[in-house]
Design goal:
By secondary structure, this protein is α/β, with parallel strands linked by helices. It folds into 2 domains: about 160 residues, NAD(P)-binding Rossmann-like Domain (Rossmann fold, 3-Layer(aba) Sandwich); about 90 residues, ProC C-terminal domain-like fold, CATH 1.10.3730. The protein has an 8-stranded mixed β-sheet. Helix 7 crosses helix 12 and helix 8 crosses helix 9. The radius of gyration is 21 Å and the shape is elongated. The structure holds NADP nicotinamide-adenine-dinucleotide phosphate. NADP nicotinamide-adenine-dinucleotide phosphate (NAP) binds next to helix 1 and helix 4.
């Protein structure tokens, strides 16, 4: 397989566009090698034109020409799409299929593709659009190291990539894929606190976002436990411990953790 394989992106919605933007704008993936397919191409035409990629309704043609196919439709659309491609013979050349559909198992993908189709399950998130994404990959049976590497090279330019056993994928979805929405609510709440204490909203939002980025980077770059880093900021009888007491009164830990638990349960039922 070539360094930049001919790529079909099926479903050019939020995630299809986020991944495509990251590939073309941030990693220099040749736009001419990408054919995106959507049921409403007219609505997405301006975005496709800005990226320089081809966009059409022709899934069969795009897949027949592709070495790698990225499945970016909603979980409930996947069965019809894969069955249609199989019947049309579009998968006869056995391209590498990479599905990002939440809750859709490798077993399901095996059942709806021709025998021997190499399959990888991936769970990216929307920050992939600005190269700050997190993608977890789980390889299907028989996928070679070279094929997994090919899937990895699609997502590596978009942020971090991790390989995990498929049994973790629902939890990955609840934490890493739903997580940006949770963080936006937390960021908004932090900014509201600043506004309540007199900061202009734009200032409060910028402070909240940069502070969050800095704190997350400290965890990733030092490898230290968040609790140890928290203890270092917490002066006895100071303002930080006073604020932490209020957060603990509101059961912040269990509320956030249970949010991830609930998202994981729902993700498991999506397929
Ligand atoms: N959103 C996230 O943060 C996130 C993160 C990780 C993974 N995912 C997964 O990514 C997948 C896509 O999610 P999304 O949020 O990007 O959904 P989305 O915005 O609805 O995009 C899906 C696009 O595919 C189109 N489509 C439907 N059937 C199709 C078909 N047969 N052929 C081609 N295109 C078709 C849809 O059109 P219609 O709108 O007309 O149906 C829509 O434009 C889902 O499986 C989801 O589980 C999402």
């Amino acid at each position: 397989m070539t360094q930049h394989p001919q790529l079909a992106i099926l479903g050019f919605g939020t995630m299809g566009q986020a991944i495509c933007s990251g590939l073309v704008e941030a990693s220099g993936y040749p736009a001419g090698l990408i054919h995106a397919v959507d049921v409403h191409p007219a609505a997405m035409k301006p975005r496709a034109e800005a990226l320089g990629i081809r966009l059409s309704k022709e899934a069969d043609g795009a897949v027949k020409a592709a070495e790698v196919v990225l499945l970016c439709v909603k979980p409930k659309e996947l069965k019809g799409l894969l069955d249609g491609l199989t019947v049309a013979g579009a998968l006869d050349h056995r391209p590498l299929l990479v599905s990002i559909a939440a809750g859709v198992t490798l077993d399901f993908l095996v059942a709806h593709t021709p025998a021997g189709t190499p399959l990888v399950r991936a769970m990216p998130n929307t920050p992939c659009a600005i190269r700050r994404g997190m993608t977890v990959l789980a390889a299907g049976q028989g996928v070679t190291e070279a094929q997994l590497a090919q899937a990895r090279t699609l997502f590596e330019p978009l942020g971090r990539v991790m390989d995990l056993d498929e049994k973790h994928m629902d939890a990955v979805t609840g934490l890493s894929a739903s997580g940006p929405a949770f963080m936006f609510v937390i960021l908004e709440s932090l900014a509201e606190g600043g506004v309540q204490c007199g900061l202009p909203r734009a200032v409060a939002t910028e402070l909240a976002a940069q502070m969050t980025l800095g704190a997350a980077s400290m965890v990733l770059e030092t490898g230290r436990h968040p609790a140890a880093l928290k203890d270092e900021v917490t002066t006895p009888a100071g303002c930080t411990i006073a604020g932490l007491m209020v957060l603990e009164d509101g059961r912040i830990r269990s509320v956030v953790a249970r949010g991830i638990e609930r998202a994981t349960q729902v993700a498991a039922g999506l397929g």
